[in-house]
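Q: I'm building a small set of examples for a reading group on sequence design. Run inverse folding on the following structure and report the sequence directly after it, with nothing in between.
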């Protein structure tokens, strides 16, 4: 990579080990780290000639010298155009709200994976993407683990869930494929929760960004003195999970040597720690996820076909959000309800024009990105309803994407709000509901009345009062 492509990341962190790891990870994509230990040094460096080249700032919540949110606000004032990301061990939504209001672009929870860190930096600095509300947010609301509670009626999504619910009752290994942000981990955890092993141990391991030796030791364990630094024997995850379940994320990122070893373990049922002459018989169920098409990786010789056959007797494909855009209204209302339950936030409704705007976007980050956009919009909205103004970059890109009639045709349903965010009068809403029912049931008035829960005579009286004509 040329010097002109190199970008400078200011890392405010007083933990040398963590700083070295972050610098090594970010170097993969051409970042050079400028590490400073505290707030005062950061202010001074940003004012220097070297600091003028800083493209992004990453700070640990616990750096000395300033309260984290105060530091973010000061940095934002000094460098308003520079994205700021906060790294923290806290999963508190309240802290996320405070950090974002102070000016943070993203919020990363430790331990952060290499992929998640690089994704956040890409999103924060990519000129091609809208800024602010489209940044992926690592702060996640607790996800449902009940299949029935998962939101979405799109046929491909419901088919995937039905397949997952069926295989959950078995002991088979499962592979869930789909783009980043489609909900693979949520589905895998739902499979575990509905499985015969639901009360047995579960551990999640990500294969992304981990060195070969570290992954081998983590999965298989090691004996004392098996390699430099192995001061004692350690059992691996597979051994400790005997009778339980391993949730292996980003399985496509496993090194070929680890792939071969894992395939052998699954074939024999015996795990052999590094440096050991003996092995242990284990019974572990693998629930794996991948952002890639694993069959294509096998065809390209990148992934072991032997391992794929063992981890994927059942493969479930989750569709991207752009292929289930009809689910966006329901997902939006679901997320807004959950966001409103978080400390420091209030319950928001959303206007139909804003809902139409969300439905028109492709959402390359899928459901996770939609949730992040709504979270950010809710943080900064003081009114009762989110409007198109709550998503300024989306509106700038897409404009007024649909008229009210278009929204009805797209299945967004009856419009509840005016453009100013206030509710429409009940009489107007009732008239729209009746019109919608008449169209839906092809003018069969007896069926319309039955579905609306009113008598046929009451229905005809309402048609007259509400001025609905030519419907029979």
């Amino acid at each position: 990579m040329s010097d002109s492509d190199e970008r400078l990341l200011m890392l405010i962190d007083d933990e040398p080990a963590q700083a070295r790891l972050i610098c090594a990870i970010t170097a993969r994509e051409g970042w050079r780290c400028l590490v400073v230990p505290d707030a005062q040094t950061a202010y001074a460096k940003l004012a220097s000639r070297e600091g003028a080249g800083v493209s992004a700032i990453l700070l640990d919540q616990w750096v000395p010298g300033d309260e984290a949110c105060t530091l973010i606000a000061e940095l934002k004032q000094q460098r308003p155009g520079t994205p700021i990301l906060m790294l923290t061990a806290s999963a508190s939504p309240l802290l996320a709200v405070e950090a974002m209001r102070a000016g943070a672009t993203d919020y990363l929870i430790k331990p952060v994976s290499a992929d998640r860190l690089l994704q956040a930096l890409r999103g924060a600095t990519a000129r091609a993407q809208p800024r602010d509300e489209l940044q992926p947010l690592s702060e996640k609301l607790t996800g449902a683990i009940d299949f029935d509670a998962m939101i979405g009626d799109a046929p491909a999504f419901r088919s995937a869930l039905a397949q997952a619910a069926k295989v959950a009752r078995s002991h088979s290994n499962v592979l869930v494929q789909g783009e980043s942000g489609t909900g693979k981990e949520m589905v895998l955890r739902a499979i575990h929760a509905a499985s015969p092993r639901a009360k047995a141990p579960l551990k999640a391991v990500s294969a992304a960004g981990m060195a070969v030796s570290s992954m081998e030791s983590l999965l298989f364990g090691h004996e004392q003195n098996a390699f430099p630094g192995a001061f004692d024997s350690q059992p691996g995850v597979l051994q400790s999970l005997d009778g339980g379940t391993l949730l292996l994320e980003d399985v496509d990122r496993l090194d070929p040597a680890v792939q071969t070893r894992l395939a052998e373990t699954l074939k024999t049922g015996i795990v052999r720690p590094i440096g050991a002459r003996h092995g242990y018989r284990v019974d572990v169920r693998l629930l794996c996820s991948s952002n890639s098409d694993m069959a294509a990786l096998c065809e390209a010789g990148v992934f072991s076909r032997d391992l794929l056959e063992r981890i994927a007797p059942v493969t479930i494909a989750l569709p991207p959000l752009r292929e289930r855009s009809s689910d966006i209204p329901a997902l939006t209302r679901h997320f807004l309800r959950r966001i409103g339950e978080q400390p420091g936030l209030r319950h928001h409704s959303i206007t139909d024009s804003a809902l139409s705007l969300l439905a028109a976007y492709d959402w390359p980050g899928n459901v996770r990105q939609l949730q992040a956009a709504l979270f950010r919009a809710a943080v900064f909205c003081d009114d009762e309803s989110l409007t198109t103004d709550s998503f300024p970059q989306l509106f700038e890109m897409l404009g007024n994407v649909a008229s009210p009639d278009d929204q009805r045709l797209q299945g967004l349903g009856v419009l509840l709000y005016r453009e100013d965010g206030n509710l429409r009068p009940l009489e107007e809403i009732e008239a729209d509901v009746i019109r919608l029912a008449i169209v839906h049931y092809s003018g069969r008035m007896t069926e319309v009345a039955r579905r609306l829960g009113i008598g046929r005579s009451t229905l005809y009286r309402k048609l007259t009062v509400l001025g609905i004509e030519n419907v029979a």
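Residues 325-399 form a domain with the Helicase, Ruva Protein; domain 3 fold (CATH 1.10.8.60).
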